Amino acid sequence: MNLNATLVGQFIFIFALIMGAVCYYFGRRKTQTPVLASLLGVMLSIIPPLSLVYLVVLVLKKDVSPTPAALSGL
């Protein structure tokens, strides 16, 4: 079975974009630094099983309670 390197590279690129968006969504609710969470998800998406494990960790993490300053801005 032949694997096309271009196709594999495109899959990893698209997977990195999707994982970045999903990790940012969960990082916004579950961490203090959502940009760092999404960047880590993108970096780990080079090896897809690692990024899926990271996503499971984010999903299972407890939500961060909002700070009083954030509530006053609403």
Summarize the entry for a quick read:
With 74 residues, the chain is mainly α. It has one domain (5-62). The protein has helices at 5-30, 34-44, 48-60, 68-72.
Description of the molecule:
This protein is mainly alpha-helical and 74 residues long. The chain has one domain. Helix content is 74%, strand content 0%. It is built from four helices and no strands. Helix 1 packs parallel to helix 3. The radius of gyration is 15 Å and the shape is elongated. The model has no long low-confidence stretch (mean pLDDT 89).
Keywords:
0% strand, mainly alpha, 74 residues, elongated, 74% helix
Tell me the structural class.
Answer: mainly alpha
Roughly how much helix do the residues carry, as a percent range? Answer: over 70%
Determine the N-to-C terminus distance. 56 Å
The overall number of domains is 1
> What share of the residues does DSSP label as strand, in percent?
under 5%
Biggest sheet record: none
Multimeric state: single chain
What is the mean predicted local confidence, pLDDT?
Answer: 89
Secondary structure: number of strands: 0
**Radius of gyration, taken over Cα atoms and rounded to an integer in Å:** 15 Å
Tally of helical runs: 4
Unreliable residue runs: none
Order of SSEs, N→C? HHHH
Q: What is the molecular shape? A: elongated
Q: How do the strands and helices of this protein lay out in sequence?
A:
Elements: H1 5-30, H2 34-44, H3 48-60, H4 68-72
